[in-house]
Amino acid sequence: MHIVRYALDGRAYYGILESNRSTISRLEGSPFDGLHRTGNADRLADARILAPVDRPRVFGLAYNYRAHSQETGKADPQAPVLFMKPSTAVIGHDDSIVYPHDGEIVHFEGELTVIIGKQGRYISEADALDHVFGYTCGNDVSDRVVQRRESAFGCLLAGKGYDTFAPLGPAIVTGLDPSSLRVITRVNGTVRQDASTADLVFPVPATIAYLSRFMTLLPGDVIMTGTPAGVGPIQVGDAIEVEIPGIGVLRNDVKAEHA
Ligand code: MG
Fold it and tell me: 139 CA distance to ligand 1 centroid (A)?
Protein backbone atom coordinates (compact mmCIF):
# COMPACT_ATOMS: atom_id res chain seq x y z
CA MET A 1 0.00 0.00 0.00
CA HIS A 2 1.25 3.52 -0.88
CA ILE A 3 0.42 6.07 1.83
CA VAL A 4 0.87 9.73 0.92
CA ARG A 5 0.67 12.91 2.96
CA TYR A 6 -0.60 15.78 0.90
CA ALA A 7 -1.89 19.33 0.95
CA LEU A 8 -5.23 20.25 -0.57
CA ASP A 9 -7.17 23.50 -0.12
CA GLY A 10 -4.82 24.62 2.62
CA ARG A 11 -5.09 21.48 4.74
CA ALA A 12 -2.87 18.44 5.17
CA TYR A 13 -4.19 14.89 4.90
CA TYR A 14 -2.97 11.36 4.73
CA GLY A 15 -4.40 9.09 2.08
CA ILE A 16 -3.96 5.80 0.29
CA LEU A 17 -2.73 6.22 -3.27
CA GLU A 18 -4.88 3.79 -5.21
CA SER A 19 -3.44 1.44 -7.81
CA ASN A 20 -4.47 3.73 -10.68
CA ARG A 21 -1.85 6.11 -9.21
CA SER A 22 -4.18 9.06 -9.72
CA THR A 23 -6.77 8.70 -6.94
CA ILE A 24 -6.10 9.20 -3.25
CA SER A 25 -8.52 7.72 -0.71
CA ARG A 26 -8.45 10.17 2.16
CA LEU A 27 -7.75 8.80 5.65
CA GLU A 28 -9.00 9.97 9.02
CA GLY A 29 -6.17 11.56 11.00
CA SER A 30 -2.84 9.82 11.22
CA PRO A 31 -2.17 6.42 9.64
CA PHE A 32 -0.18 5.54 12.76
CA ASP A 33 -3.54 5.35 14.59
CA GLY A 34 -4.96 2.91 12.00
CA LEU A 35 -6.01 3.17 8.38
CA HIS A 36 -9.57 4.49 8.42
CA ARG A 37 -10.90 5.77 5.09
CA THR A 38 -13.11 8.87 5.28
CA GLY A 39 -14.90 7.93 2.07
CA ASN A 40 -13.51 11.02 0.30
CA ALA A 41 -11.46 10.56 -2.86
CA ASP A 42 -9.00 13.23 -4.00
CA ARG A 43 -7.13 13.53 -7.26
CA LEU A 44 -3.35 13.30 -7.01
CA ALA A 45 -3.17 15.96 -9.73
CA ASP A 46 -4.98 18.42 -7.41
CA ALA A 47 -2.79 17.70 -4.38
CA ARG A 48 0.71 18.74 -3.39
CA ILE A 49 2.71 15.86 -1.97
CA LEU A 50 4.19 16.63 1.47
CA ALA A 51 6.98 14.94 3.39
CA PRO A 52 5.52 11.62 4.60
CA VAL A 53 5.77 12.62 8.28
CA ASP A 54 5.29 16.10 9.77
CA ARG A 55 8.34 17.28 11.74
CA PRO A 56 9.62 13.79 12.61
CA ARG A 57 12.62 12.69 14.62
CA VAL A 58 15.12 11.63 11.97
CA PHE A 59 17.85 9.15 12.85
CA GLY A 60 20.67 8.43 10.44
CA LEU A 61 23.36 5.80 10.13
CA ALA A 62 26.85 6.61 8.88
CA TYR A 63 29.18 4.09 7.22
CA ASN A 64 26.53 1.39 6.78
CA TYR A 65 27.71 0.14 3.37
CA ARG A 66 31.23 -1.30 3.12
CA ALA A 67 31.87 0.15 -0.35
CA HIS A 68 30.91 3.64 0.87
CA SER A 69 33.12 3.31 3.96
CA GLN A 70 35.99 2.30 1.66
CA GLU A 71 35.47 5.32 -0.61
CA THR A 72 35.73 7.56 2.46
CA GLY A 73 38.75 5.71 3.87
CA LYS A 74 36.94 4.25 6.88
CA ALA A 75 36.83 0.70 8.26
CA ASP A 76 33.45 -0.92 8.91
CA PRO A 77 32.06 0.20 12.28
CA GLN A 78 31.68 -2.32 15.12
CA ALA A 79 28.23 -0.95 15.98
CA PRO A 80 25.85 1.35 14.09
CA VAL A 81 27.17 4.93 13.94
CA LEU A 82 24.15 7.08 14.73
CA PHE A 83 23.35 10.72 14.20
CA MET A 84 20.20 12.82 14.00
CA LYS A 85 18.91 15.33 11.49
CA PRO A 86 16.66 18.11 12.80
CA SER A 87 12.98 18.07 11.88
CA THR A 88 13.50 21.41 10.11
CA ALA A 89 15.72 19.62 7.57
CA VAL A 90 12.79 17.55 6.31
CA ILE A 91 11.24 18.40 2.94
CA GLY A 92 9.00 16.43 0.61
CA HIS A 93 8.97 15.24 -2.98
CA ASP A 94 9.39 18.10 -5.48
CA ASP A 95 10.49 20.56 -2.77
CA SER A 96 13.82 22.32 -3.35
CA ILE A 97 17.07 21.54 -1.57
CA VAL A 98 18.49 24.93 -0.58
CA TYR A 99 22.22 25.12 -1.28
CA PRO A 100 23.72 27.06 1.66
CA HIS A 101 25.12 30.47 0.69
CA ASP A 102 28.43 29.48 2.32
CA GLY A 103 28.32 25.84 1.16
CA GLU A 104 31.46 24.50 -0.55
CA ILE A 105 31.02 20.76 -1.08
CA VAL A 106 27.47 19.46 -0.66
CA HIS A 107 26.79 15.81 -1.45
CA PHE A 108 23.67 13.74 -2.17
CA GLU A 109 23.20 10.42 -0.33
CA GLY A 110 20.36 8.18 -1.55
CA GLU A 111 19.04 5.92 1.22
CA LEU A 112 16.35 3.41 2.08
CA THR A 113 14.39 5.10 4.85
CA VAL A 114 12.33 3.35 7.52
CA ILE A 115 9.16 4.82 9.06
CA ILE A 116 8.41 3.38 12.50
CA GLY A 117 4.77 2.51 13.17
CA LYS A 118 4.74 1.04 16.67
CA GLN A 119 6.33 2.31 19.86
CA GLY A 120 8.98 0.12 21.44
CA ARG A 121 12.04 -0.17 23.64
CA TYR A 122 14.43 -3.16 23.79
CA ILE A 123 13.01 -4.46 20.52
CA SER A 124 14.56 -7.77 19.47
CA GLU A 125 15.81 -8.29 15.94
CA ALA A 126 13.15 -10.98 15.56
CA ASP A 127 10.37 -8.50 16.42
CA ALA A 128 11.91 -5.45 14.74
CA LEU A 129 9.99 -5.51 11.47
CA ASP A 130 6.69 -5.60 13.44
CA HIS A 131 7.58 -2.04 14.53
CA VAL A 132 7.97 -0.78 10.95
CA PHE A 133 5.07 1.05 9.38
CA GLY A 134 6.68 1.23 5.96
CA TYR A 135 9.53 2.49 3.83
CA THR A 136 10.28 5.56 1.78
CA CYS A 137 13.13 7.10 -0.20
CA GLY A 138 15.49 9.52 1.51
CA ASN A 139 18.34 11.80 0.58
CA ASP A 140 20.78 12.46 3.45
CA VAL A 141 22.16 15.69 1.98
CA SER A 142 25.49 16.51 3.65
CA ASP A 143 27.90 19.44 3.60
CA ARG A 144 31.27 17.64 3.57
CA VAL A 145 33.38 20.61 4.66
CA VAL A 146 31.30 21.16 7.80
CA GLN A 147 31.00 17.41 8.32
CA ARG A 148 34.78 16.84 8.17
CA ARG A 149 35.39 19.62 10.68
CA GLU A 150 32.79 18.13 13.06
CA SER A 151 33.70 14.49 12.62
CA ALA A 152 37.35 15.23 13.49
CA PHE A 153 35.89 15.68 16.99
CA GLY A 154 33.50 12.75 16.73
CA CYS A 155 30.21 14.44 15.99
CA LEU A 156 27.81 14.73 13.05
CA LEU A 157 25.08 17.33 13.20
CA ALA A 158 25.48 20.71 11.53
CA GLY A 159 26.80 19.43 8.19
CA LYS A 160 23.79 17.11 7.89
CA GLY A 161 21.38 19.45 9.62
CA TYR A 162 20.88 22.44 7.34
CA ASP A 163 17.27 23.26 6.48
CA THR A 164 16.10 21.12 3.51
CA PHE A 165 18.90 18.53 3.93
CA ALA A 166 16.47 15.63 4.54
CA PRO A 167 14.23 15.11 1.49
CA LEU A 168 11.81 12.20 2.13
CA GLY A 169 9.11 10.59 -0.01
CA PRO A 170 7.17 10.44 -2.20
CA ALA A 171 5.09 7.79 -0.37
CA ILE A 172 5.35 5.40 2.56
CA VAL A 173 5.03 1.89 1.20
CA THR A 174 3.90 -0.89 3.51
CA GLY A 175 4.50 -4.61 3.27
CA LEU A 176 7.97 -4.49 1.69
CA ASP A 177 10.84 -6.83 2.54
CA PRO A 178 13.76 -4.45 3.27
CA SER A 179 16.47 -7.10 2.92
CA SER A 180 17.29 -6.62 -0.77
CA LEU A 181 15.82 -3.42 -2.16
CA ARG A 182 17.62 -1.60 -4.95
CA VAL A 183 18.57 2.02 -4.23
CA ILE A 184 19.36 4.19 -7.26
CA THR A 185 20.41 7.84 -7.23
CA ARG A 186 20.46 10.00 -10.35
CA VAL A 187 21.82 13.51 -10.79
CA ASN A 188 20.35 15.24 -13.84
CA GLY A 189 19.35 11.81 -15.15
CA THR A 190 22.80 10.19 -14.77
CA VAL A 191 22.95 7.19 -12.41
CA ARG A 192 25.45 7.90 -9.59
CA GLN A 193 24.48 5.23 -7.04
CA ASP A 194 22.99 1.79 -7.73
CA ALA A 195 23.18 -0.67 -4.87
CA SER A 196 21.18 -3.19 -2.85
CA THR A 197 20.19 -3.02 0.80
CA ALA A 198 21.47 -6.62 0.90
CA ASP A 199 24.87 -4.93 1.38
CA LEU A 200 23.90 -3.00 4.53
CA VAL A 201 26.46 -3.64 7.28
CA PHE A 202 23.63 -3.36 9.84
CA PRO A 203 20.36 -4.39 8.18
CA VAL A 204 17.02 -2.87 9.21
CA PRO A 205 16.20 -5.35 12.05
CA ALA A 206 19.66 -4.97 13.63
CA THR A 207 19.43 -1.18 13.36
CA ILE A 208 16.02 -1.03 15.06
CA ALA A 209 17.17 -3.41 17.80
CA TYR A 210 20.30 -1.32 18.41
CA LEU A 211 18.53 2.07 18.47
CA SER A 212 15.85 0.79 20.84
CA ARG A 213 18.50 -0.33 23.36
CA PHE A 214 19.00 3.38 24.11
CA MET A 215 15.72 5.12 23.38
CA THR A 216 12.04 4.47 22.89
CA LEU A 217 11.15 4.42 19.22
CA LEU A 218 7.91 6.23 18.44
CA PRO A 219 5.37 6.01 15.62
CA GLY A 220 6.49 8.38 12.89
CA ASP A 221 10.19 8.12 13.71
CA VAL A 222 12.34 8.11 10.59
CA ILE A 223 15.52 6.04 10.20
CA MET A 224 17.78 6.75 7.23
CA THR A 225 19.72 3.52 6.83
CA GLY A 226 22.92 4.85 5.26
CA THR A 227 24.17 5.49 1.76
CA PRO A 228 25.97 3.16 -0.64
CA ALA A 229 29.05 4.03 -2.70
CA GLY A 230 28.95 6.70 -5.37
CA VAL A 231 28.23 9.85 -3.38
CA GLY A 232 29.15 13.10 -5.08
CA PRO A 233 28.55 16.82 -5.24
CA ILE A 234 25.37 18.66 -6.13
CA GLN A 235 25.16 22.15 -7.59
CA VAL A 236 22.48 24.81 -7.85
CA GLY A 237 20.20 23.87 -10.75
CA ASP A 238 20.70 20.11 -10.41
CA ALA A 239 17.80 17.65 -10.15
CA ILE A 240 18.43 14.77 -7.74
CA GLU A 241 16.35 11.59 -7.88
CA VAL A 242 16.41 8.73 -5.39
CA GLU A 243 14.52 5.72 -6.70
CA ILE A 244 13.68 2.53 -4.86
CA PRO A 245 11.70 0.20 -7.15
CA GLY A 246 8.49 -0.69 -5.33
CA ILE A 247 8.46 2.67 -3.54
CA GLY A 248 8.89 5.30 -6.23
CA VAL A 249 11.09 8.24 -7.15
CA LEU A 250 11.91 11.09 -4.77
CA ARG A 251 12.83 14.10 -6.88
CA ASN A 252 14.24 17.41 -5.64
CA ASP A 253 15.93 20.25 -7.44
CA VAL A 254 18.67 22.38 -5.90
CA LYS A 255 18.26 26.12 -5.58
CA ALA A 256 20.46 28.88 -4.22
CA GLU A 257 19.80 30.15 -0.72
CA HIS A 258 19.45 33.74 -1.88
CA ALA A 259 17.94 33.27 -5.31
MG1 MG B 1 23.82 9.09 5.00
Answer: 8
